[in-house]
Amino acid sequence: MAAKVHPNLAVPSLIQPPMAPPAAMAAGDSVMKTKAAAAGGDVVLTVWRKSLLFNCRGFTVFDASGDLVYRVDSYAADSRAEVVLMDAAGVPVLTVRRKKAIGSQLGLGGDQWLVHPGEETRLPPLYAVKRTPQYVRGGGSVKTMAHVAPCGVALGGGGGGGYEIEGSYLRRSCAVYDSRRRAVVAEVQAKEAVGTDVFRLVVRPGMEVSVAMAVVLALEQMFGKPSLLRSWSS
Questions:
Q1: How would you classify the pairing of strands 43-48 and 198-203?
Q2: How far is 10 from 232, CA to CA, in rounded Å?
Q3: What is the DSSP letter of 14?
Q4: What is the DSSP string of 70-96?
Q5: Does residue 176 contact residue 165 with C-beta atoms inside 8 Å?
Q6: What residues have CB less than 8 Å from 29, skipping those under 6 apart?
Q7: What is the pLDDT of residues 35-50, one digit of tens each?
Q8: How far, in whole angstroms, is CA 45 from its chain's centroid?
Q9: Distance between CA atoms of 159 and 189, rounded to whole angstroms?
Q10: 40, 64, 171, 188: least CB-packed within 10 angstroms?
Q11: Beta-carbon contacts of residue 192 (< 8 Å; ≥ 6 apart)
C-alpha cells in the first residue's frame, strides 16, 4: 500500500496553470522567500520521491502545512544533463547540472554537480557539489560524503561559506554542516514506517531552503539506489 503523504494538493495535470512571471524574477523571489523563512526558525519539508505527473519521474515537496512548495518532473525519455527544481506553480527556481570530469577514472567521484539560478545554465553557477573521493572508494573512516562550495571557492571543505555533508543518504540520515563545522544547517531525516521514498528535510538558519533541496537532488544522483535522477544526467 502506498504511503499517504499530504492531502492539501490539486493534481497539476488537472488544473490550468497560472500565467508565470519571468523565470529569473520568479526564481529570485522564491529564493528570497525561502531564505526569509529559514531566518525565522527551522523549516520542515516532507520530500516524496515521486512526481505527481503521469509518466514522469521526480520529487514532490510539501511544507509543514501540507502545501506543495517544490516539484521536480521529468518524462522517462528525457535525457538532459540537468534537473530543474521548480516551485509549486512550475516556475524554475534552481537547476542542478552534472559536470563530468574529463578523463576521470573514479566514475561519479570525479564529477561535480553545479547549481544554477533558475533554469539558465549559461549563467555562472551559484554552488558546486562534489562527492568526497575517499567516500567513493569506500573508506569507512571517512564521514564526509560531499562538499558544497560557492563557485570560485575551491572544493574541499575549506572556508568561504560552503557546506560539508555527513551521514548516509541511503538511510535518509544526513547532516549538512556550515563551512567551519560549528553548526548543522540542514538535515535529511527518515520518516517512521513509510520507507525511504518519503523523508524529512529540516533546514535551519544559515542555509537557503531551495539550496538545501538542490543538495538533496545532487545526493540522489550520487548515492540513490536506484536513483530516480541519475539516468537524466548520466
A1: antiparallel
A2: 27
A3: G
A4: EEEEEETT---SEEEEEETTS-EEEEE
A5: yes
A6: 21
A7: 444 456 899 999 999 8
A8: 12
A9: 26
A10: 40
A11: none
12 with 72: CB under 8 angstroms? Answer: no
User: Which amino acid does the sequence have at 110?
Assistant: G
3-state secondary structure of 207: coil
Look at residue 9 in the predicted model and tell me its pLDDT: 53
pLDDT score for 31? 47
Question: Taking Cα atoms as reference points, which of 92, 52, 84 lies closest to residue 68?
Answer: 52
CA–CA dist 116, 216 (Å, integer): 15
- What residues contact 39, with CB distance under 8 A and at least 6 apart? 205
The alpha carbon torsion through 167, 170, 172, 175 (nearest 10 deg) reads: 20
**Strand, helix or coil for residue 102:** coil
Pick from 199, 198, 171, 203: which is nearest to 187 by CA? 203
- Residue 137 is placed in which grid cell? 572508494
- State phi, psi for 11 to the nearest 5 degrees: -65, 120
pLDDT in tens, 160-185: 579 999 999 989 999 999 988 889 99
Check: CB of residue 82 under 8 Å from CB of residue 121. yes
Q: Give the pTM.
A: 0.77
Query: Mean pLDDT per segment of 10 residues, for the chain of length 234 residues?
Result: 50 34 44 48 94 85 96 70 91 92 57 91 92 65 85 53 91 92 94 88 95 95 71 45
Q: What is the 3-state secondary structure (H, E, C) of 116-141?
A: EECCCCCCCCCEEEEECHHHHCCCCC
d(CA 75, CA 2): 21
Neighbouring-strand partners of residue 149: 128
Amino acid identity of 76? A
